[in-house]
Q: What sequence folds into this?
């Protein structure tokens, strides 16, 4: 994707298209978004591997068994009920994240192909009168990545990340800068 954007920048610089550098910068921003989504996907995959649903269900069953003890002090029973509620909430979040991760994976698969479509459009019709409009139309289709990224940047997602996983945008920026070197 980065090479395609650079080739389009070169076309603009050489005057071989009616696009502007600002138009192409939008494509470059989407490349950075793509890297951010890759980091989010990695984080979600690590989280899924961290604690599985089966393990949580076993822990919940153990708590329910403890709660059946009639001689259990009231404060311990309250703490066990709280733990049970937290485990239930964890399961609900994990299920929502699974659905979101599916949407994210579909976006990650589609984005490079969509970027290739934009590249082919610019290369095959560089002097089209409405090149900016065509690019905007293509960018609108690519913006689904931004919507998915916004959904994953919610506090809920980051609260579930394993220790040591940083913010996707910062990591993507670092990966992009490393790739240029």
A:
């Amino acid at each position: 994707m980065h090479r395609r954007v650079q080739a389009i920048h070169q076309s603009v610089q050489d005057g071989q298209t009616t696009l502007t550098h600002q138009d192409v910068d939008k494509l470059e921003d989407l490349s950075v978004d793509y890297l951010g989504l890759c980091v989010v996907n990695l984080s979600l995959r690590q989280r899924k591997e961290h604690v599985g649903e089966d393990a949580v269900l076993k822990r919940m069953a153990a708590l329910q068994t403890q709660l059946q003890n009639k001689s259990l002090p009231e404060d311990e029973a309250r703490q066990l009920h709280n733990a049970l509620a937290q485990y239930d909430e964890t399961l609900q979040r994990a299920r929502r994240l699974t659905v979101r991760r599916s949407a994210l994976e579909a976006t990650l698969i589609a984005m490079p192909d969509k970027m290739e479509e934009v590249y082919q459009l610019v290369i095959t019709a560089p002097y089209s009168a409405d090149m900016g409009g065509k690019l905007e139309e293509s960018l609108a289709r690519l913006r689904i990545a931004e919507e998915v990224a916004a959904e994953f940047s919610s506090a809920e997602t980051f609260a579930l990340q394993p220790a040591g996983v940083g913010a996707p945008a910062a990591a993507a920026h670092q990966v992009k800068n490393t790739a240029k070197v």
